[in-house]
């Protein structure tokens, strides 16, 4: 593993921990050259289904894109990075369990909105406004009323 500070290739593992699902190993490393510490994450590489866009194009699953979208929606909200990571982990498992080689991107967007609705209402509305491309305030208000109606049940 290359040191992010000095580029040296020799380092040693100081500490290793598994996440609660035993799917990711977090390793604290120390560079043999500069003695600085850095963290690496090791996860099992599994094949994710291809995403089929609205226009029919195929796109490779990109966890980073999903996490970035969630971070933007949850900005300045009481949602931790751990909650976001756990949600994306669960989403990836769900998509893998479907056993499909291709999945419509619409399905992923809907699953993300369902999850955000449970995690944080404001983040949900932020994400929905971008995902559903609201054209005016009326569309926004319809979505808000549906969300608030769902909470009263």
The assigned structural class equals alpha+beta
- Uncertain runs: none
User: What's the alpha carbon Rg, rounded to whole Å?
Assistant: 19 Å
Instruction: Work out the helix count.
Output: 5
Instruction: Give the N-terminus to C-terminus distance in angstroms.
Output: 52 Å
Number of domains: 2
Shape, please?
elongated
- Give the SSE order as H and E letters: EEEEEHHEHHH
Strand portion, in percent? Answer: 15-25%
Mean pLDDT: 88
> If strands are numbered along the chain, what order do they take across the biggest sheet?
1-2-3
Identify the quaternary structure here: single chain
Describe the sheet with the most strands.
3 strands, antiparallel
How much helix, percentage-wise, in residues? Answer: 40-55%
Number of strands: 6
Please give a structural write-up.
This protein is an alpha+beta fold and 153 residues long. The chain has two domains: 11-43; 50-152. The protein is built from five helices and six strands. It has helices at 63-73, 81-97, 105-119, 121-131, 137-152, and strands at 11-18, 24-31, 37-43, 50-52, 58-59, 102-104. The strands form two sheets. The protein has a three-stranded antiparallel β-sheet, with no helix packed on it. The protein has a three-stranded mixed β-sheet with strand order 5-4-6. A hairpin with a 5-residue loop joins β4 and β5 (58-59). The longest helix is centred in the middle third of the chain and has 17 residues, at 81-97. It is elongated and about 60 Å long. The mean pLDDT is 88.
